[in-house]
Specification:
The chain is of the alpha+beta class. The chain has 1 helix and 3 strands. It has a domain of 42 residues: Rubrerythrin, domain 2, CATH 2.20.28.10.
């Protein structure tokens, strides 16, 4: 069951509520009793666990594309130096 964040527009009371998706949204504030208790939009908080999943979607290993970039930079440096000597 998901946890929904609610906040009262009248008194500012905030509360996290564990509800079924099919449950009707709460409208009455438990603190002041006003009909201004609304759901807040919040970021989903979950983490994938197990083999093959990374917490940040990156393994931390160097990608094969990183090696050619270093080689391309050294290859362009002599050409840039030669172009600079002509100018």
């Amino acid at each position: 069951m998901p946890i929904y964040a609610y906040q009262c527009g009248s008194c500012g009371h905030a509360k996290d509520v564990l509800q079924k998706i099919s449950d009707a949204p709460l409208t009455t504030c438990p603190s002041c009793g006003a009909e201004a208790f609304t759901k807040q939009v919040t970021a989903a908080g979950f983490q994938l666990k197990g083999t093959g999943w990374y917490a940040t979607d990156f393994s931390g290993r160097k990608s094969p594309a990183a090696a050619p970039e270093a080689g391309a930079a050294t290859a362009s440096s002599p050409a840039a130096a030669a172009g600079g000597a002509d100018a």
